[in-house]
Amino acid sequence: MTDTDLFNTLALMRIEGVGDIVAKKLINHLGSAQAVFAAKKSQLLAIEGVGEVLYNNLKNTDVFKHAESEVNFVRQQGITPLYFLDNNYPERLKHCIDGPVVLFSSGNINMAGRKTISIVGTRQMTAYGADFIRKLLEDLTPLNPVIISGFAYGVDIYAHQVAMDINLQTIGVVAHGLNQVYPKVHKKYVAKMEENGGFMTEFWSTSNPDRENFVKRNRIVAGISEATIIVESAEKGGSLITANLANDYNRDVFAVPGRITDKYSMGCNNLIKSQRANLLTNAADLIYMLNWELEEKKHAPVQKQLFVTLEPEEQKVYDYLLKNGKELLDIIALQCEMPVFRLSSLLLTMELKGVIRPLPGKLFEAV
Questions:
Q1: Euclidean distance between CA atoms 284 and 215, whole angstroms
Q2: What is the pLDDT of the chain when averaged over all its residues?
């Protein structure tokens, strides 16, 4: 991304009434942020959702001063801007309608073709949660996944620490500009994280870790990953927001169960009970549900049972696969109008019944 492209894109994002969705629409119609500012009134008003108010806001030249200052900061600090149309932008985030137009990253991040999971949870992590995280990541080490979290207290920072201990790439998605560290006590982890991983944010250097920024941060954590794991959570908490966002993005969501009397297992247990998350007890559960192991081993042929009775939802999925052949999990969920977490459970049941088989790359086919 050139300085000119970055300058105009950041200026566009400062326009009142222009968020990520509107900015993408304008850029997709006109080709670039620079073209948006140069467009004639008739061109802009011809775009659905653009009216006189937004057109007049685009004439605000003050935004260019702010953009110039931020471009200077980015270049001076060696920060890498990731533009939503560029190849280095996180692939899964490209498919989120409200994904950031520009992400700022630091460190040595390489997500291309990598397995990615987010691990989030309470700030008041217990020994139960810590033990689970360490065992999970140690067992996943042969698959070399990228571990993503929010660099906050508790589950977040512990997931980063364990990832660093066992040399897994880890990325902290933060709710402020990259000119500061929050919480400040975590500054001691920054250098090591940037050796193998680093940090991402959509926030400018002028942004502080304000309350509303954390919810926006959570959508990146959810959208950037193949799956989101909730390790421990009270009945209410930010990690449950992340779980809901992941479900909205058709991502796999997993929750670690706990005793019904444990305060920080209530949120996880409720996610599982309401079928908004898959139950996660070990790395094997995750590997199976995400079909990661299928790249390395062949499955024995599935023998279809005779006189199988399918539930209505199962029949809908089976009929779709029978008609369309091999299909991706996300596409099946979209076409059959059901969330991925629900579909994953159905597919497992259908596989046990012998009517479908999983294939490498999260593909499925009817038997």
A1: 31
A2: 91
pLDDT at 330: 84
- Rounded-to-integer distance, Cα 148 and Cα 224, Å: 9
For residue 2 the two structure tokens come to 């050139």
Residue 180 to residue 193: CA distance in whole angstroms: 15
Helix (H, G, I), strand (E, B) or coil at 14: coil
C-beta of residue 177 within 8 angstroms of C-beta of residue 204 = yes
Helices 340-353, 312-324: crossing angle, 10 deg rounding: 80
Return d(Cα 79, Cα 32) in angstroms, integer: 22
For residue 358, what are the β-bridge partners?
Answer: 364
- DSSP β-ladder status, 363-366 and 356-359: antiparallel
Q: How far apart are CA 309 and CA 100, in angstroms?
A: 45
Residue 340, token pair as written in the block = 């991925």
Q: Is the pLDDT of residue 340 over 90?
A: no
pTM (2 d.p.): 0.79
Q: How far apart are CA 185 and CA 175, in angstroms?
A: 16
- Cα–Cα distance between 153 and 147 in angstroms, integer? 16
The dihedrals phi and psi of 143, each to the nearest 5 degrees, come to -90, -10
**How far is residue 325's CA from residue 222's CA, in Å, rounded to a whole number?**
29
Model confidence over 133-154: pLDDT tens digits? 999 999 999 999 999 999 999 9
